[in-house]
Amino acid sequence: MICQECKQRPATMHFTKIVNGEKTEFHLCEQCAKEHGHMFMLYGNDDFPLNNLLAGLLNFQAPMKEVTANAFPNPDLLQCETCKMTYHQFTQIGRFGCADCYRTFARYLPPILKRLHSGNTAHSGKIPKRKGGVLHLRKQLALLKQKLQELVAREEFERAAEVRDQIRSLEDELRQRGEGEM
Amino acid sequence: MSFEKFFNTAVSSWMSQEGPDSDIVLSSRIRLARNIVDFRFPTLFNSEEAKQIVALFERTFAHRSYGGAGRFELLKMSELQPIEKRVLVEKHLISPHLAEDSPFGACLLSENEEISIMINEEDHIRIQCLFPGLQLAEALEAASGLDDWIEGHVNYAFDERLGYLTSCPTNVGTGLRASVMMHLPALVLTQQINRIIPAINQLGLVVRGTYGEGSEALGNIFQISNQLTLGKSEEDIVADLHTIVQQLIAQERAARQALVKTLGIQLEDKVFRSYGILANCRVIESKEAAQCLSDVRLGIDLGYIKNIPRNILNELMILTQPGFLQQYAGGALRPEERDVRRAALIRERLKMEERRKMEGDER
Ligand SMILES: [Zn+2]
Ligand SMILES: [Zn+2]
């Protein structure tokens, strides 16, 4: 096979790339692969090697399928209503078709996310401002409630009373804003 | 076109600036992946959806300015020549994926080329900020500000529990990829790098050389980036990467000191031989060029070579790639022709420095 870049030297390096669900194969000679690879690296195309790994990772889900077999006789047939992507397609491509896929495939995602993100399954970073108002308040509320329990356990009642008042005013605010925004 | 004119238009302003720890850290980059509610992801969207997204960005952000970055220009991939796209990739402003496989891809590029926002790449939106030297926190702040600016006009796909929803599950959560490009010649020469890379990988970070395994990295340049995007805040992800990078900087500096002590004149000889090759070669392959540039850069850092700017490595690693070589030549080149052009471009660049120095001396 001849290198498809220089069309001169024999192709010794072979890459697979998946774009829009379609597989494209690259056959390059060593020199062109270096120049090509060089390009990938210098740009720092973060997902290039990772995505190839990912397709392998997602296909390697045999134990999980057994566990969930009762809930869905054939998880591969599960399909996102919005974009029509099936779970089987997702495991092949390693990409979601739309934001709703996350909800559709929700029951299969935790083990995948855990593996990709060192055991984590929940976001604890930035929140968009638009959704933010209410979300921020809810997060703050959860933290305060936790704090209240700790203070009560330590019998620090004076500070606990302060926190309780903060919780009340937050709950009030949530009630008002929640109605408007949700 | 004269070489100086080519050079001056080819080098982005961020490339010729120095940042903190510029002797070892070439650049810091932050990328945020975002998607717009109510559109399918680029994996599956149709051309109509793709065009609507590009139109939305053209209407809302093109010709507007943000902060000190200057005005944004919208570049549609379908309207660019292959060499123009390649040059954007080699300048790190767009990804190869956007250039090659995204028929409805576009890019909002800031005047100073510090910020690029890719549209319809793997996600609808990829915000990228590129700073010289080690400036991860600064780059994050800039990217986050832009993120707010964009979010003021579009609704992001966001889930209360999972965070920003991305096309690939490796990006969900913060959608953040922070990466640092480092020049580590002494860790390579002392072979410590082979021990360090697996250790860094174990910390949940990814180290990438140009190709192949660690010690084979082209020009001794390595990219270190975070792997997980879920469960940690943006600030924590960046702080963790920053800590590791600082440790690497310390190790590289120690290894350089050790090399100077043990090799002495031999190290100086290696540096000046490489300089001799670059200043005189007539044909040079990218691998040899990268190695010689790395040696010369080390020589500049160690004070052996004076009067050549430090950023010559960053510049020439970028300018000697096929896209730029072909732009410089004004047409398509076969690989053997590129090797000749590469040699000429490097010689011209070094001569330009000599001229600058002489002009400086006369003054
Ligand atoms: Zn080839
Ligand atoms: Zn879907």
From TrEMBL, chain A:
Coiled-coil parts of chain: 134-173
Protein name per the record: UVR domain-containing protein
Domain of life: Bacteria
Protein's organism: Geobacillus uzenensis
Domain UVR: 138-173
InterPro entries documented for this protein: UVR_dom, UVR_dom_sf, YacH
Protein's UniProt keywords contain Coiled coil: yes
A Pfam family: UVR
Keywords, in A-Z order: Coiled coil
Automatic annotation (TrEMBL), chain B:
SUPFAM superfamilies per record: Glutamine synthetase/guanido kinase
Binding residue positions for ATP: 27-31, 92, 126, 177-181, 208-213
Enzyme class: transferase
Top-level division of the source organism's lineage: Bacteria
The reaction(s) this protein catalyses: L-arginyl-[protein] + ATP = N(omega)-phospho-L-arginyl-[protein] + ADP + H(+)
Positions of short motif RDXXRA motif of the pArg binding pocket involved in allosteric regulation: 338-343
Pfam families: ATP-gua_Ptrans
Presence of the UniProt keyword Zinc in the record: no
Activity-regulation annotation: Appears to be allosterically activated by the binding of pArg-containing polypeptides to the pArg-binding pocket localized in the C-terminal domain of McsB.
InterPro entries named among the record's database cross-references: Arg_Kinase, ATP-guanido_PTrfase, ATP-guanido_PTrfase_AS, ATP-guanido_PTrfase_cat, Gln_synth/guanido_kin_cat_dom
PROSITE patterns (UniProt xref): PHOSPHAGEN_KINASE, PHOSPHAGEN_KINASE_C
Keywords on record: Allosteric enzyme, ATP-binding, Kinase, Nucleotide-binding, Transferase
Domain Phosphagen kinase C-terminal: 24-255
E.C. designation(s): 2.7.14.1
An MF annotation (GO) of this entry: kinase activity
Family stated for the protein in its record: Belongs to the ATP:guanido phosphotransferase family.
Listed PANTHER family: ARGININE KINASE 1-RELATED, ARGININE OR CREATINE KINASE
Biological role: Catalyzes the specific phosphorylation of arginine residues in proteins.
The name this protein goes by in its record: Protein-arginine kinase
Lineage start: Bacteria, Bacillati, Bacillota, Bacilli, Bacillales
